[in-house]
Structure prediction request, 449 residues.
Amino acid sequence: MIYKLVTDAATAVADITDGSTIMLGGFGLCGIPENCIQAILEKGTTNLTCISNNAGVDDFGIGLLLQQKRVKKMISSYVGENEEFERQLLSGELEVELIPQGTLAFRCMAAGYGMPAIFTPAGVGTEVAIGKESRIFDGKEYLLETAFNADFAIVKAWKGDTDGNLIFKSTARNFNPLMAMAGKITIAEVEELVEPGILDPDQIHTPGIYVHRIFEGKNYEKRIEKRTTSK
Amino acid sequence: MLDKEGIAKRIAKEVKNNTYVNLGIGIPTLVANYLHEGINVCFQSENGLLGVGPFPKEYAVDPDVINAGKQTITALPGASSFDSAMSFGMIHSKKIDLTILGAMEVSENGDIANWKIPGKMVKGMGGAMDLVASAKHIIVAMQHVNKAGESKLLAKCDLPLTGKNCVKRIVTELAVIDIAPEGGFILIERAPGVSIEEIKNATAGKLLISGDIPEMAL
Prediction:
């Protein structure tokens, strides 16, 4: 099989240069590539365009990159719960493209399936539609949305093997398998890395062909944004 | 006049047996607490779960299991998890029977605004633009007036839209209101102790009243 194992996050992100476009998996702080975000932070990479559903919180996730002004542009669907983000956005320091969550998912999917674009009804009649081609199918209007074109996709999985096969857990799956398919180079960090043959082929969510680098992450904090319990 | 729990309680009556339902953040989330006996519902959370259960006991909290409001939740027996494309695939292919969400403004032709106040607040639309574009039935749960005392039921939305001509029914602390196909707010029910006059005063758009307007039964 093709060799994909790298030693750690620093090695995995070593060639992400200033000005790169990167996709980061996760929904809120759930299923985010914690190790790689930290490694990018330590490496000093800047001027990034980040495609990610959310922008983390002030002191965790992509919020860490925002605090140090490493992000030139964010493409997200929801960015609440992050004061520094809102401040940079309203002051014009940060370029932001807000797009519907389904559109974000479908634009990743399109890239992963080799389709140049998709049609979606989300955003018709709103400012999201401005400047976009639209078409009527069966009497309903749809917007043409193009596939993402990202230099790197950085995803987090529950389990993976050295051939790059990935399995995600519960709602930590979210955008991760879609982004894994969409990156020119896909980096996967996993909680548990095993030898080929251990994972059941029928349970694989992301086939290894989509993953170029894989390593076992360390010290996952898995911070909870809204800890809600019942008695 | 209803409190938030009361609005949720009234909306719970709208939830039909054997349906798939998506609940937005805030008052809509409370609806799950008031479902009537014998009503079998499967809740979808658009971050990728069907079969959303109650909040976990403290010892069972799992950071990998959250809802679209980022709260820790449980997955019921028979639940399934999936990626975001499949999640919005089931929304756009109209597999979700009912969407309940909050709003900042609703217009008399069913337009909804709930994601941005230019120059002041930008949180983003999340999944709302997808949900309103494709839901079979949309109920808005909101306060009738905003914190400044201004009506949120308008002839035309001032704020940037989330979707056009999509809202079917609105439940507020004062009333149940339907959107008329030709435009206008049809008054269906009054909240307990609320007069038609009070509802008129709190509604900036065209309020359509015909016959006796019953008080809500909760």
Q: What stands out?
A: Chain B has a mean pLDDT of 96. Chain B touches chain A through 56 residues (CB under 8 Å). The first helix of chain B runs from residue 4 to 12. The first strand of chain B starts at residue 19 and ends at 23.
